[in-house]
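Predicting holo structure, magnesium ion bound.
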Amino acid sequence: MKIQKITRHCIPLLAVLAVRWAAFGADTDTNKIDGFRNTPMLPGSQWHVHDSDRPQPPVVTPGASFSQSAPPPSDAEVLFDGTDLSKWQNSKGGDAAWKVQDGYMEVTPGGDIRTRGKWADFQLHVEWASPLPATGSSQGRGNSGILINDMYEVQVLDSYEAKTYPDGQAAAIYGQSPPLANACKPPGKWQTYDIIFESPRWDEKGDLVKKACATVLHNGVVVQNHYQLIGCTDGISGVVPWGTLSKYPAPHPPEVFIELQEHGPNPVRYRNIWIRRLGDAGPP
Ligand code: MG
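Done. C-alpha cells:
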C-alpha cells in the first residue's frame, strides 16, 4: 500500500518535470532574443550589430495571397517549378541533393545549394514556408536564407510572433538592416519574397563605385526600400567574421548566383522560384 501511495504522488510530479524538461530542451521560448551589445556599432546608427535592445519592427498582417503562386512573366527564367533541381548545384558544382516532393524542395542536411546561372541586377520571386510544428527560438527557429553570391543575405526565419535581434529576423538584410515591418505568416504557411537586387560595382582600379542595393517585399509588404548594403553579410562568406561589421569583399563580377541556406536542422521549404534579369533601359 505504501508503495502504491508513493507511486500515486510521484507520477504526476514526474510528468510535470518531464514536460518542463522537454520544453527547456526544445527551447521554444518565442520571447528569447539572444542578441548582443558587445558587437561593433552599425554606421549612422545607435545600434550594435545583432543588437538585442533594438526595437522590434512593427507587426503588419499581410494580405492573404499577394504574389503567392505567381506565374512567371514571359521573360523570367524559372529556377524551380516544383519538380526538379536541375537549375541548382551544391557548393562544389555537383548536383543539388535537397528533397523534392509535392511541388516543393526542402532544406536537407549536406549544405547550401546555389543556382548554376548568374545575374547582375535582377528581380527574384521566392516562396518559402517555415517548419510546422515550429521548434526552436530566436535564430534557431526556421533559419534559412537567400544568400546572394554567398555574400549578401536576405534572412529567412520564422519571425511569426517570435522575437530575435531585429537585424536577424525574417526579411532583414542580415546584420545590417532590420525589415521595416514584420510581415511574417504563421509556420507552415507559404510566404513570398519579391527581391529587386542590384550588384555592387567596382571601377578598373578596384574602387567601389556602387554599393549593392536591395528592395524586398515580404508577402506584399515593402520591408527593404532600396537599401544600400554596407558590405558582405557577417558569418557566411569568410570575408566578414560573424558578429563583426560588414564590409565589401575584393571586387567581384556583377553577375552573382542565388544560394539557399542550410542553417542547421531547420527543414524550411521553398517553391515557385523565378528570376528576371533587369534590362538596360538604354541611354537617357
Ligand atoms: Mg539565415
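The chain has one domain: 3-277.
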